[in-house]
Structures are given as C-alpha cells and as structure tokens.
Task: inverse folding
C-alpha cells in the first residue's frame, strides 16, 4: 500500500455524519495517548490502521445490520410471519433508515434495486429443481418460485458496502479501462455463473482477464489525511475473501443451505472466494458507472472532485456534489 501524499477532505452527502465522529473525535481520545506511549511515528501508523478498521465497519452498516437481523431472527417468533419474511421486511426497514439519516440517497437506492434484479435472476437459476446449487429450506410469503425475496438484499449489501467505502475513503481510480471492456467482462462473468453447469467453468480464464484488464488500475483512498493506493484487482480479492467469511456466518444462521449442509452445518469451502471475487467485479463496475469515473468522464470527475473538496457555500454547489459523486 503506497503513500500518495495528502488530499483535501470532501463534503460528500452523508460522509460528514460518519467522518465527523470517526475522523474528528476519535483522534482526540486515542492519538495523543499512543504518541506518549509509542512515539509519534508508530502512533500515527496504529491510529491510521484503527481508523481504517472503523471506516470499513461503518461501510458495512447495511451488511452488518442484516447479519445481526439474521442472527436474532431465529429467536423472534411473530405469529403469522415466517422468518424469511421477517428478514425481508427488516431489510426494507434498514434501507429506509439509511436514506433517512442520509447515509444513502435515492439514486443509490435505485442502483441497489438493480442488484436485487441481478441477484434474484441468479438465485432463480441456481435454486431451480434442475440445478439445486443451494436452497432455502424455510417457507416465505414474499417469494418468487424457489427464492425468498429477502435474498436480493444480500447482493445489494455488497453494492452498499462499495458505495459507502467510496464515500468514507474518498476513493479515486487511476487508469481505469474503457467502459466497453469493463462491461463486457462483467457480462461474461455473469453469463458464466449460468453456463458453467453445461460447459467448462471459465472462472479462472475470466480471473486472468480481470488481472489483464485491470493490471494498471489503482484505487486511491484516504484514511485520515494521506492518500494511499493499492491495485484494484487486489481489492477485488480482499472483498471476495471477507464476503466468503460473511457467507459462512450467514449459512450458520440458516440464511440458505448448500447440499453438504443439509444434515448439519459445515464450512463453505474456500473455492467460493473466487466466485465472490468475480461477483464483486460486477458490483464494482455498476457502482463505478454510477460514480462516472470511466475514461470519457475522467476530466469532468476531477473538476467536480475539486468542487466538493471546497466548503459548501450554496445550494447550487451542494446539488453539484450530489450529482457528481453521490
């Protein structure tokens, strides 16, 4: 992870709510104490690592809330309401709260709705009687054939994490590939999730294509004040790894069931990390399109980024921020 100097703070919609508590109040309590104990240089490194962890946790607000809801759902009994329906209604409530407190806006909700459609389409195929890659063993009123509708929120939570991270870490991409190539690769990855049951699984050739296409792309981010960067392809792998951990937690609490888990719960094998990494790429491309960072928009993006780094002085400028980077 490379130090890239400092970049001004931004006033992105929803970011002040979290950044004010994480980046302003936290150092008043922790950094001076660490400096006295460990010295300023080591204290700064530890402090930045702690803030990074806090911001990542904040970015997982939807996914974390949903996992909590899943964990307690088996202990809550509401007459006439199935557990999967409770999860569906609870996920909607979480989404409404996030919009109400301005951690997400309606434009982002529209993108999350797209992830519902992408996820439900995949779920309908994978849980169909002829495929049975996994199943949902419990009943649900809100369902579509073999798929309870709450499952769409699990896919949307990945996109929510990416959008929250983009805001909290003030992400900036360099040398991003063309829109056509990025979307084409995403389409091929999505198609392979369906075709791999009838032909050779192309996940590893597709993973090689990811490395080739994004070989020069760097994701630049800010934890406290210094801008740092890492290869975008590495971030795909890391996110896929943590989704795999979340998947094991979710299946432990009965969110869904793989064939080898029917008698008793067992860990989901690490080979699933590659599947999640590829799914993350689809999610990232859609979010990147929302953020308008493809090469044709790079110049406009940079100019707007400078605007949002300035203090908000008028309603017009606030509108520009929301349109450019929300």
Result:
């Amino acid at each position: 992870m490379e130090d890239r100097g400092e970049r001004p703070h931004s006033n992105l919609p929803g970011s002040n709510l979290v950044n004010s508590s994480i980046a302003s109040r936290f150092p008043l309590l922790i950094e001076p104490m660490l400096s006295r104990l460990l010295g300023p240089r080591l204290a700064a490194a530890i402090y930045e690592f702690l803030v990074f962890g806090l911001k990542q946790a904040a970015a997982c607000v939807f996914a974390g809330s949903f996992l909590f809801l899943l964990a307690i759902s088996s202990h809550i009994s509401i007459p006439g309401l199935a557990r999967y329906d409770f999860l569906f209604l609870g996920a909607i409530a979480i989404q409404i709260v996030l919009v109400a407190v301005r951690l997400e806006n309606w434009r982002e909700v529209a993108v999350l709705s797209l992830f519902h459609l992408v996820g439900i389409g995949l779920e309908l195929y994978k849980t169909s009687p002829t495929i049975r890659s996994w199943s949902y063993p419990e009943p649900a009123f809100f369902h579509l054939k073999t798929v309870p509708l709450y499952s769409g929120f699990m896919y949307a939570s990945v996109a929510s994490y990416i959008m929250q991270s983009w805001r909290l870490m003030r992400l900036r991409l360099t040398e991003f590939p063309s829109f056509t190539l990025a979307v084409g690769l995403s389409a091929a990855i999505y198609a392979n999730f369906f075709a791999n049951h009838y032909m050779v699984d192309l996940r590893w050739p597709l993973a090689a294509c990811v490395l080739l296409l994004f070989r020069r792309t760097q994701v630049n981010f800010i934890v406290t004040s210094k801008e740092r960067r890492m290869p975008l392809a590495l971030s795909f792998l890391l996110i896929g790894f943590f989704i795999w951990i979340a998947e094991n937690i979710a299946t432990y609490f009965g969110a869904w069931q793989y064939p080898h888990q029917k008698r008793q719960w067992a860990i989901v094998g690490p080979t699933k990390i590659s599947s999640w990494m590829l799914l993350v790429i689809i999610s990232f491309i859609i979010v990147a399109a929302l953020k308008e960072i493809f090469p044709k928009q790079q110049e406009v993006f940079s100019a707007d980024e400078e605007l949002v780094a300035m203090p908000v002085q008028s309603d017009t400028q606030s509108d520009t921020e929301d349109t450019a980077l929300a």
About this structure: Residues 2-325 form one domain.
